[in-house]
Structure formats: structure tokens, C-alpha cells
């Protein structure tokens, strides 16, 4: 087995289709398929099931992919160590970015990182945190920004905390609860959520960590399930819907921008939304990755870190 076929199988496993892997590798689907068939003949075992529009790893395929990704990770780490010695750092990082937070931090950090390490390119995978956790632990990506309420429960990764903030409840101007109140940038004390039991809400996607680890448990504690009319990964969209007066929302404090049409409240129990970076247990951080993490930490502390509300006397 040569090194090239290792890259071929890794690409097929990540892409899940022959056409997608072929595009990534800049070869034809027919040529890639022939390489896969040749390897399966050599090994005497089928690695992928050819389903409609998908290539699904068999049990043998999963074993093969785990071994291949371990070899690729070792080779990447070896190259990084050699480059650290020579000072000529080149290569590719595969970085996972959750929507909004991760993409925003990356966009702000990238210019400074690129100026320091111009030979490093980065492939970005923008997905929800549950998918990113799986990709990090399996070695499909090198690292990922991660968001959630309980990072200490995430298994199979090393986690570096970068910042922490509040989740805020937003309700539109004109809501009966606001009668006699002026809307201002001041965040108001946590209300009894039962005041909003009959309202419509626009919230994060149900499978997101913000929902599963924080938002849904908050409503469970309040004793009711909200009427969720819209779900989205984009906080600006959720805020805009609330500003239009059609619903309430809950979003991270760092994503709040509208203080004219939306009143913002802390939530009961002061839940904290954590932002950090995760990488596989056996992944060795290079000097370039350590520099990237330092830049990300500085950026997150400036833009995403908010103290919990002060306790009333």
C-alpha cells in the first residue's frame, strides 16, 4: 500500500461519495474507484458498501479509516516538528467552526496568524458542535472551536477554555410584559419565564449544544415547553425575528446588537455559555497551532467574555 492510496481512502471516508472525494483529490471518479477496488482486492475484504449516492464504510472500512487517520496524524505531526526546527512552517490545518462564534473568531484571527505563518493553509468545516466533536475525536479534523454549557462532559478530546458568557432572553418592544418599561442597553434582571409560556420563540437548532445543554433544561425547570416557531444556527437572524415583533428569543450576550426594538433579560439561574477549542487526545500541538490558540484566546476574551450578572442583595 502506498501513501497516496492512504490519502484516497481518507478522502472517501470523509466525503462519503466517490465524486466528492475525486474533486478534493483532483482526479476522476473512475480513477479513484479503480484505486479503491484494487486495494479491496489486495486486502481481500470490502471496505465500503456502494449505496445510492453514498459510500458507507463496512466494519473493515471503519477499522481501516481509524488506522489511516492515525498514520496521517503521525505524519502531520512529524512534518510539523521538522518544520519547527527548520523555521519553514508549511502545511494544512483542518479546522472546525461552529456557526457565528467560531466563524467570527476565525475571521478576526486569521490575518494575524497568516502574517506569522504564511505557509499554513486552513480547511474550514462549518458544522454544529455535535458533528464537530465526532470529527475531532475521530481525527477527521485537527481541531475545532466548540460551544456549550457543559464542556467538562465532552469525552475523547482535550479542551482549552477560551471565554464564557451569559445567555439572554430577548422580547420585542410592545410585549405586554414591557408595559411601563423603557428599552435600553441595560440588561434587565431575570424574569419568571412562566410570564412567556404562551409566546412564540425563535431558538437555536434543537440538536445544538445550546439547546440540549442549556436552553431546553431552562424551560424544563420553568415547567413548560416553549412554542418554537423557528429554529436557526444564526443568532443575528433570531434577533431580527424578535425585533420584528413576531417572537421572543434566547441568544448569547456577545451576539446581541439591537437595543432599540428588543429588551434583553438575564435568565433564571444565570446559565453560562462556554467557548473553547478542542483537539484529539493523541494530537500533538505544533508551534503554529499553539500560536493560533493564543490569538484565539486573546480575541475571545475581548469579544466573547462577559461576567455573570451581579447578585442582588
Would you kindly provide a written description of the structure presented here, covering whatever features stand out?
The protein is of the alpha/beta class. Among the domains are: 1-88, Arc Repressor Mutant, subunit A (Orthogonal Bundle), CATH 1.10.10; 166-271, 3-Layer(aba) Sandwich (D-Maltodextrin-Binding Protein, domain 2), CATH 3.40.190. Helices cover 42% and strands 23% of the residues. The chain has nine helices and eleven strands. The chain has helices at residues 3-15, 18-25, 29-43, 59-86, 101-116, 129-138, 209-222, 235-243, 287-303, and strands at 48-51, 54-57, 91-97, 120-126, 143-148, 157-172, 200-203, 227-231, 248-252, 262-266, 272-280. Strands 3, 4, 5, 6, 7, 8, 9, 10 and 11 form a nine-stranded mixed β-sheet that branches. Strands 1-2 form a two-stranded antiparallel sheet. Helix 7 links the parallel strand 7 (200-203) and strand 8. Helix 1 packs across helix 4, helix 2 packs across helix 3 (29-43) and helix 5 (101-116) packs across helix 9 (287-303). The model has no long low-confidence stretch (mean pLDDT 91).
SSE diagram, text form:
Blueprint: H1 3-15, H2 18-25, H3 29-43, E1 48-51, E2 54-57, H4 59-86, E3 91-97, H5 101-116, E4 120-126, H6 129-138, E5 143-148, E6 157-172, E7 200-203, H7 209-222, E8 227-231, H8 235-243, E9 248-252, E10 262-266, E11 272-280, H9 287-303
Parallel strand pairs: 3-4, 3-5, 7-8, 7-9
Antiparallel strand pairs: 1-2, 5-11, 6-9, 6-10, 6-11
Helix pairs in contact: 1-2, 1-4, 2-3, 5-9
Amino acid at each position: 500500500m502506498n501513501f497516496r492510496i492512504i490519502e484516497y481512502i481518507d478522502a472517501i471516508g470523509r466525503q462519503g461519495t466517490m465524486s466528492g472525494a475525486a474533486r478534493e483529490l483532483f482526479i476522476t471518479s473512475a480513477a479513484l474507484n479503480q484505486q479503491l477496488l484494487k486495494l479491496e482486492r489486495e486486502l481481500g475484504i470490502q471496505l465500503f458498501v456502494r449505496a445510492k449516492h453514498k459510500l458507507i464504510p463496512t466494519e473493515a472500512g471503519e477499522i481501516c479509516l481509524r488506522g489511516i487517520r492515525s498514520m496521517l496524524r503521525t505524519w502531520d505531526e512529524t512534518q510539523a516538528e521538522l518544520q519547527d526546527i527548520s523555521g519553514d512552517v508549511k502545511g494544512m490545518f483542518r479546522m472546525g467552526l461552529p456557526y457565528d462564534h467560531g466563524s467570527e473568531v476565525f475571521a478576526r484571527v486569521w490575518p494575524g496568524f497568516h502574517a506569522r505563518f504564511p505557509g499554513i493553509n486552513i480547511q474550514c468545516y462549518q458544522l454544529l458542535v455535535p458533528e464537530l466533536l465526532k470529527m475531532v475525536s475521530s481525527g477527521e479534523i485537527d481541531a475545532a472551536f466548540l460551544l456549550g454549557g457543559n464542556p467538562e462532559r465532552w469525552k475523547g478530546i482535550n479542551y482549552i477554555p477560551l471565554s464564557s458568557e451569559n445567555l439572554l432572553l430577548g422580547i420585542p418592544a410592545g410585549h405586554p410584559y414591557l408595559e411601563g418599561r423603557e428599552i435600553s442597553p441595560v440588561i434587565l434582571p431575570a424574569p419568571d419565564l412562566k410570564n412567556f409560556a404562551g409566546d412564540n420563540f425563535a431558538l437555536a437548532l434543537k440538536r445544538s449544544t445550546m439547546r440540549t445543554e442549556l436552553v431546553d433544561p431552562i424551560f424544563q425547570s420553568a415547567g413548560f415547553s416553549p412554542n418554537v416557531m423557528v429554529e436557526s444556527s444564526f443568532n443575528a437572524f433570531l434577533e431580527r425575528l424578535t425585533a420584528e415583533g413576531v417572537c421572543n428569543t434566547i441568544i448569547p450576550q456577545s451576539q446581541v446588537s439591537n437595543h432599540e426594538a428588543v429588551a434583553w433579560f438575564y435568565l433564571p439561574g444565570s446559565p453560562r455559555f462556554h467557548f473553547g477549542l478542542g483537539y484529539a487526545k493523541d494530537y500533538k500541538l505544533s508551534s503554529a497551532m499553539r500560536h493560533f490558540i493564543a490569538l484565539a484566546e486573546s480575541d475571545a476574551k475581548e469579544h466573547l467574555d462577559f461576567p455573570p450578572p451581579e447578585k442582588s442583595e
